Amino acid sequence: MERKKIEVPATVLTGLEAVRLSGKTNMLDAPRVIDLAFEMGHAEAAFWVYENRGLYAHGIFQGFAAVDSLNKCTPSRHVAQHGASDRKVGKPSHECESSDTCEGGENPCVDR
To answer: What is the distance between the alpha carbons of residues 77 and 61, in angstroms, rounded to a whole number?
Structure first.
């Protein structure tokens, strides 16, 4: 059975790699990874791990793959824009479309 790598934005992979190379934590310690990513200036990586702990755990064992751009309604972008993880689009981020809205509002996030 082929393992599929977890796709993440390139900036997230860069942040995760910086934390890993620092040697300051075991990468399985997600809360510490989040703290270190923030401390090292990789906020997008920190937000992504916080909002995607399940995918992060899979990625630790399956690997991560950088992609140029995921659908821009990822939870980390929502958190960065709204300061909360209360995205209410009723489907996973990777299935969001440009017409989907944040918090059930009339307008999509400005980053889409």
So the answer is: 25
Cβ-based neighbours of 70, under 8 Å, separated by 6 or more: 7, 8, 9, 93, 94
Confidence of residue 3 (pLDDT cuts 50, 70, 90): confident
Give CA–CA dist 104/39, Å, rounded: 33
Return the closest-CA partner of residue 17 out of 40, 29, 68: 40
C-alpha–C-alpha distance, residues 30 and 99, integer Å: 32
Integer Cα distance of 100 and 64 in angstroms: 26
Could you tell me which of 36, 58, 60, 56 has the C-alpha nearest to residue 48? 56
pLDDT tens per residue, range 17-67 = 999 999 999 999 999 999 999 999 999 999 999 999 999 999 999 999 999
CA max distance for the chain: 45
Total count of residues recorded for the chain: 112
